[in-house]
Specification:
The chain crosses the membrane at residues 12-39, 51-71, 91-109, 150-172, 192-213. By secondary structure, the protein is mainly α. It has helices at residues 6-38, 43-57, 61-79, 93-118, 122-130, 135-165, 177-188, 191-220. The protein has eight helices and no strands.
Length: 229
């Protein structure tokens, strides 16, 4: 059915999965940093966090991918000679893809985490302090578990969008399953066959992700009663 290109596309699918997981890990870190800045009582830090979230969310992903990949490569090659390195440096497409998607979706996750933190009643933190907990204990034992529960729906949406956005990284030469499908389509002149196969793989990946994240949401909702109005 896939004219002998099935194994090649599966190799690309594995690379796509690595890209998605690594990018999301970086996005979580940047999202937590971003929300820490945005909720900071220090005005200029809050402004910096808001600027990060606003600017990145306002620019199309493809434009940012091209800007960061080509612009970053240009900056690196301008700076490298200052440190005595004269050879031309080519950015690794996988590393560039992880950095770019992580940076983009870190901004989205900062908004998701911000909403989750603001959804926790302030009285709970005050009760923790009154009980004798330190600020760190209140943060990790009271606020973070509840933040995770409240953030899972938004996190799920961001994960699905990021997973689909990995297809855009093929434009900078990453040989993911989209790149491999394009090569196979050009060689066989049967684009519908290969792009349909890639669409099915993305659908399988997102469907499995939804099941896993729904289980996680249920796990973190144990003991929580939903009040129906």
């Amino acid at each position: 059915m896939l004219k002998g290109y099935g194994a090649v596309i599966l190799d690309g699918a594995w690379l796509t999965l690595q890209l998605a997981l690594s990018s999301m890990a970086l996005a979580i870190v940047l999202g937590l940093i971003g929300v820490a800045l945005r909720l900071s009582p220090v005005r200029w830090l809050a402004w910096l966090g808001d600027m990060y979230a606003t600017v990145i969310r306002g620019i199309p992903d493809l434009v940012l991918i091209l800007l960061i990949f080509y612009g970053g490569q240009d900056i690196i090659n301008r700076v490298a000679p200052l440190f005595g390195y004269e050879d031309y440096i080519d950015l690794n497409p996988l590393a560039a893809g992880i950095g770019t998607l992580g940076f983009i979706f870190g901004a989205y996750l900062s908004e998701t985490f911000r909403g989750a933190f603001l959804g926790i009643p302030k009285g709970q933190a005050e009760a923790g302090v009154a009980y004798g907990m330190s600020n760190l204990q209140v943060f990790f034992r009271i606020q973070v578990p509840q933040m995770i529960r409240l953030a899972i729906p938004g996190f799920t949406n961001n994960w699905l969008v990021l997973t689909k956005a990995t297809a855009l990284i093929s434009v900078v030469g990453l040989q993911d399953m989209m790149f491999k499908a394009k090569q196979a389509a050009d060689a066989t002149r049967e684009p519908f066959t290969f792009f349909l196969a890639v669409a099915a793989m993305y659908l399988v990946l997102t469907s499995v992700s939804l099941l896993a994240l729904k289980y996680l949401e249920k796990r973190y909702s144990v003991g929580v009663k939903v009040v129906e109005l």
